[in-house]
Amino acid sequence: MPGSYSVTFDYNVPILMRDGITTYADIFRPQVEGAVPALLQRTPYDKSAPASRTGTLDAVRAASHGYAVVIQDVRGRYLSEGEFYTFFNEINDGHDTVEWIASQPWCSGKVGMFGVSYVGATQWLAAKSGAPSLAGIAPGVTASNYQEGWAWQGGAFELGFNLSWGIGSLGAANWGNLSRKLNLDEDDFESLLAAKDGLTEWFQYLPMKDMPQLKDVAPYYYDWLDHPEYDDYWKQVSIEESHADITVPAYNFGGWYDIFLGGTIRNYERMSVMGATDIARSGQRLTLGPWIHGGSPPSVSGEYNFGTRAAGAAIDLMGEILRFYDHVILGEDNGFTDNRPVRVFVMGENVWRYEDDWPLSRAVDTDYYLHSGGKANSLNGDGALSPEQPGDEPPDAYVYNPINPVPTVGGGLCCDPAFMANGAFDQRWVEGRDDVLVYSTPPLSEDTEVTGWVKVTLFASSNAVDTDFTAKLVDVEPSGYARNLTDGIVRARYKNPRQPASLIRPGAINEYEIDLWATSNLFKKGHRIRVEISSSNFPRFDRNMNTGEQIGSDLAFVPALQTVYHTSEYPSRITLPLVPR
Length: 581
Description:
By secondary structure, this protein is of the alpha+beta class. Helix content is 21%, strand content 29%. The strands form six sheets. Strands 15, 16, 17, 19, 22, 24 and 25 form a seven-stranded antiparallel β-sheet that branches.
């Protein structure tokens, strides 16, 4: 052990939860004498689907390696009984499942977990439960806080994700279970499918709180909308509230173009400092590739090919997870810890690199300031970006009209690529709009690496009582091709994070910090660094109607005149972590 064993398979094994609900699991076990450790995946996406059995970690491969593999439908999904409601049941259910597995005669008493996205959330929530038999987790592309960075970001509602996930991945995909429990008929199913196939129309539905299509199948959507602030509703399930209490090591992995990138990194960062035990703190690992959201990371993100070596298969991500468990569960000295704990793919250079820490201690936060002669509108404007601080420069202005928002073009998206394709795309047609301010450096005289957290500090005013400001970092090739790297948003009423909403005074100049999360990119010699500033990214984020009304209740909207300042008094800028080379 580990070795290469024949595998037995048990289908639809019942697992009883503490409240009497029965869930069902498929179990793959190696034909070996004695008890073995187990690896658990708790999924809302059908335990018997090929993606559940082979996506993140191939069940047969892991079982033949010497682990029992348990794949369970979480409560209320597919074959499992009960009512599915996001996050809240996963703490107790995760605990009960881990301990049930540990008590089986074929299990050694040690259990690890694996999986991505919501399946990553089930791992962290099980770790939050303190299940004593949980020995490690391997969560991919998942969040640390289900308010900020899952349902909301920067005070804006993650409309594209919340709606497409609720209608498609959670609603239509689980129809058999839902229809039995809710007594829904074929007409209801046809209506839901029509909504799934017509998301463009439903993204624009007003008011959002009265969206009809999710009333029966995804009630949590409306609860998320009712809780725009980080209140007790979210704190009950937030991993960030429990980092200091979690005792297990974690193999974290994520993608530069993933919707949950920020949380993936924060889980690693915070656990490395706050984990409750030495093994929890020292046992954290982080791998970040140029990947979009999903279980088996490809080398192509959006329309951009980062090369064969960029794929998860090229670094044998499955094998890395198994080596991680061979080390932390079996105690094998297999060389897993010989490499440094952080592994990043540097885009542009298109190479993998190991690092000692995150953020990189040698990275130097460097400000690049916005400049213009007052006409930075569009790609054809006079916007510029440089390390020199601005002097007495005229501001830039544009009109943000919610009826014609700036469209989403790539980025960290989920969950229906037919309506929102995620990853890297040419941004030039977005940059052709007058409501997008464009600031670019001259062609770089030398290679310039940016690896780490990125933020924009913006000084701006609006004639509205509430509005949004967005920012995007772009790598511009000599040909003009403009590849998006990372982006962010801030809603004016939430310009002070984790503080109650506060409307702004029309015309007043406010300071906004826009969190663009993180990236790793080599801007090659001759390329340009570009920053876009606007007020919408739709349908990724809901449109701010500029009225100051309760989010989700608006039927009316007003255009907003936005003014961005860049002077010695109001030095709007982007802060880039430059890595010496």
